[in-house]
Amino acid sequence: MSFTNKVNAIKRRLSKFTRSSLIENLMKRLHSPDSSFVEEASLPWLSCIMLEFILEVDEARGARNADSRKVSELLNDLWELQNEALQFQDDKNILLTMRPFMIQQLRFQSGQVTHLYFLSRMRLILMDYNTSPKPIQAFEKNTGIKLKDFFTLSLFFAVIFSNILEKKQSKITYEFILTKLYPSYSLDTLARFLSMVGGDFETLSKIVRSRKAHAGPARPERYFSESLLFDKPLLLLPSGISTTHSYIACIGLCEFVLRTLKSCDNSGNVFRKPFSMAFEKYINQLFIEYDLNVVPEHVLKGKYDEDMKNNKVVDFFYSTDDKNLFVDAKSVEPKQEVLSTQEPRRIKERLRDHLIGALVQAQVCASTLEQSGYENIVSRSRRYILVISHQDFFVGSGLRLRNLLGNDYGPTIDEAIGDEFELENVFYIAIAEFEGLMKLLQNSQKTIFDFLDFCKEREAEQFLFDMRQYISEFGQVLELENPSPIGSEQVQESFDFTYEDLKSVWKYSSDYWRKKGKVDPLLATNEFISVSRYFRNVLLMSK
């Protein structure tokens, strides 16, 4: 039986049970803060796949209630599909085979602080480093909410839901929200925000059905695709607001601004171009902050001979007495296909314009500097490339990327670096990991070349899955108190800024209702009931 037929068979079995009973049992698993469900099939991302299936199918006539045991059986059937989705073959690269599974696992295992810092970094880059009005104007036109307010509201709900399961809660009431956020924000603003980031099960069902119909029949690579639930991370229930899973809530809320800006940027000029410039400025400031005296692009290009001024150039160049580092900033995020596919050709095609293109830039830049007689250029074996992306592509290094692309497409990497670099001197890192690396180097008095040489030695033994693992191992070797720091000082300050804004909002709203209650408790109660009713009506209409 084909993969598609097996998926359809599971969906037919699901249709024999009432949607409400399936959702109830599945939500118990997703909301469980302890180890009540320990089987492999209880992995959160697998439960999210099942929830999408439940929301996609119609109940059959005579559908009966499902119990916990039956849901376990269905989850195990879904788990067993994994072997077919991974498509194990004797002649297939094991790293390429396991990569989609590992990425899904990491998505639900990384510390929630990394997602909160993602939100803070977006605020920092868009509001402090970006000089174009276009991204902010586009976002506010698209949402009807000021970007600053959206960041504050996102932090409110992300913080609450990031640790709500530890408190053995599964939802917050609308009354709680109103006492903390109104009248600091209008009821219309609150309703608009919630209707964008959340929906009831009926709304989620419509979204899932629409996306699945557009995508066509189930295919193995989609087994490991990002959950559609990230688009509507909050559940708007009659009794309050919940979420399918704390990670769905935190990630979905913290990445909502990015997803929204990408969706309304058809030309690339509204968001991507200004964001790229701001991203480069932020990285430049990080180099300054951590005392790395880099040569920026415009200065580096001034070192080119006149007849080569139009040649490609990297964003930053760092040099010591005996080593060179060519740094290129790529403010890009991986498309889902890059993370879920096991086909080298697709990876190559998706990376051609940025991650592989960055190697071409470095190759041309090194060659041009050498031909121009630049005094700081060193020999090929002592040159390094570091490509910094906005989000992680999970390729790690030039050697590993070549390994993923295999014999048919791997030579693309060799061609990209030409004779200017050795493949083992090429590395990729996401901005979150780069921030942590800079802090680690500062704390240890080590250089970035010490770290890259460590990575080379470690890769000669075995590839690790992501750069965070290399950073952590390097920190452990150095016996640092914190071997894997997270975030830069600027990101922490951005988080503190939004958090202070949230505290002011919280205090103003709480004081408003407390003072009302002191003056006239009955009048205050009646006003709150009226506000609550109006809010629910506005929220209902906004859906």
Quick recap of the structure?
The protein has 543 residues and is an alpha/beta fold. It contains 25 helices and 9 strands.
Any overview of this molecule?
The chain has 543 residues and is α/β, with parallel strands linked by helices. Helices cover 61% and strands 7% of the residues. The chain has 25 helices and 9 strands. The strands form 2 sheets. A 5-stranded mixed beta sheet has the order 5-6-7-8-9. β2, α11 (201-215) and β3 form a beta-alpha-beta unit. The chain is globular. 40% of the residues are buried. The mean pLDDT is 92.
The DSSP helix count reads 25
Placed side by side, the strands forming the largest sheet appear as 5-6-7-8-9
Mean pLDDT: 92
Report the β-strand fraction as a percent range: 5-15%
Query: What is the β-strand count?
Result: 9
Could you say which structural class the secondary elements and strand pairing correspond to?
A: alpha/beta
Please give the share of residues in helix: 55-70%
Oligomer class: single chain
Identify the overall geometry: globular
Biggest sheet features:
5 strands, mixed
Distance between the termini: 41 Å
Low-confidence stretches: none
Radius of gyration: 25 Å
Descriptive labels:
543 residues, alpha/beta, five-stranded mixed sheet, four-stranded mixed sheet, 25 helices
